[in-house]
Amino acid sequence: MPDMQLMTLLGVGFVLGLRHALDTDHLVAVSTVLADRPSLLASGRIGLCWGVGHTFTLLFIGAIVLFWGIHIPEQFEFIAETGIGVLLIVLGGMLALKLYREHWHVHSHHHDGEVHVHFHRHQRQEDHLHRHWMKESIRPFCIGMAHGLAGSAALMLMILATTTGMAAGLLSILVFGLGSIIGMMVIGITISLPVIWSRSISRRLFVGVQGFASLASVVVGVWMLVKLTPLMLRH
Questions:
Q1: Nearest to 56 by CA among 162, 131, 140
Q2: Is the dihedral of CA 14, 16, 19, 20 positive or negative?
Q3: 64, exposed or middle or buried, with CB in 10 Å at 0-12, 13-18, 19+?
Q4: What is the tens place of the pLDDT at every residue in 55-113?
Q5: What is the value of pTM for the model shown?
Q6: What is the rounded CA–CA span in Å between residue 40 and residue 168?
Q7: Helices and strands (H, E) in the chain, number of each type
Q8: Cβ–Cβ contacts within 10 Å for residue 8, how many?
Q9: How far apart are alpha carbons 231 and 225 in whole angstroms?
């Protein structure tokens, strides 16, 4: 009977992990990264790195909570959620700034013996997109770690309420994390499809999709901060 209860808990944890990947803040954070990497392979890798970073943080905090029996204070969750809101704004702003810098800049040239200065639009050269795999992986890994930090309090409450041993608790977190990894990989590939499609249609449409991802990230980040304002005033 205990084994059956554990298996049921692990199954529920896996499904919750899949569902957890669909949270709005997760989607927009990953979208800002995916909008700049229009390929199925890169999208799957970004989702994988996000999920691994997310799970790493949950396991680390879970081990501390389960071993020492520490209760995560409400202020910790508040600070972490505030950090995610700021992170989304920064990610959206960075993507918008990158789009601006890549497509519009001051250009000077000589004409009839005079120097002319004007704004000039450059199409991004694809051979300039080469990056190392490790460098591409660090960013989504760190973003996943930040989201894991923000979601750790709620998950720890669920784990502590349903398990008694440290091993079972860590296993539950690991299975939850596995669900979030698979979910984010699937979501990453799915989100990348319209990005790849827009790129094949026209450059303007592709930039529009990137701009939408940037705007969505900033809007959701601001919305999270506004939602947390009552708690901020209380503290």
A1: 140
A2: negative
A3: middle
A4: 999 889 888 888 887 777 778 878 888 999 999 999 999 988 888 877 644 455 555 55
A5: 0.79
A6: 35
A7: 7, 2
A8: 11
A9: 10
